[in-house]
Amino acid sequence: MAEGIKTSEMRELLRKRFGNHARYAVAEEVGDSTGFARRRLDMVVCSCWESDGFCIEGIEIKVSKSDLKHELENPHKHDVFFGDLDFYSLAAPREVINGMSESIPKTWGLYEAYRQKDGELALKCRRRPVSIEGS
């Protein structure tokens, strides 16, 4: 795992980013059906404000280059969700994304986690996603 950033820490960073509960509704480990779902998204964020377009974004967390590489080898594995999503993004540590960002589809958003000089974790939007409908 890059820089020791764990999946749980990535989840916490995303929860903080979308922590305004009046503005966003967040669900984790969202399956494509009830029961034993075949596919899961790590996080789904629903914007509850009209000014944000009431959009729904699916987010996959990747904490290793091998996990990201596996995702990129099968970029359509989450297509089953695309009928219900407006946007799709990846969230990963900076070291995982570096050197691989050109391989990530341009329509996918990218959230980048990194350690600040004081050692605290931070998250930034490196690339905004393009609407699935428009892609």
Q: Characterize the main sheet.
A: 6 strands, mixed
Overall number of domains? 1
CATH architecture: 3-Layer(aba) Sandwich
Beta content comes to 25-35%
- Read across the widest sheet, the strand sequence of neighbours is 1-2-3-4-5-6
Molecular shape: globular
Number of helices: 4
Order of helices and strands: HEEEHHEHEE
Radius of gyration from the alpha-carbon trace, in angstroms: 14 Å
Describe how the helices and strands are arranged.
Layout: H1 7-17, E1 24-31, E2 40-47, E3 56-61, H2 65-73, H3 79-82, E4 87-93, H4 94-97, E5 109-115, E6 121-127
Structure notes:
It is a single chain. Strands 1-2-3-4-5-6 form a six-stranded mixed β-sheet. It is globular, with a radius of gyration of 14 Å. The protein has helices spanning 7-17, 65-73, 79-82, 94-97, and strands at residues 24-31, 40-47, 56-61, 87-93, 109-115, 121-127. By secondary structure, the protein is α/β, with parallel strands linked by helices. The longest helix is centred in the N-terminal third of the chain and has 11 residues, at 7-17. α4 links the parallel β4 and β5. The protein has a single domain (2-127), classed as Trna Endonuclease, Chain: A, domain 1 (3-Layer(aba) Sandwich).
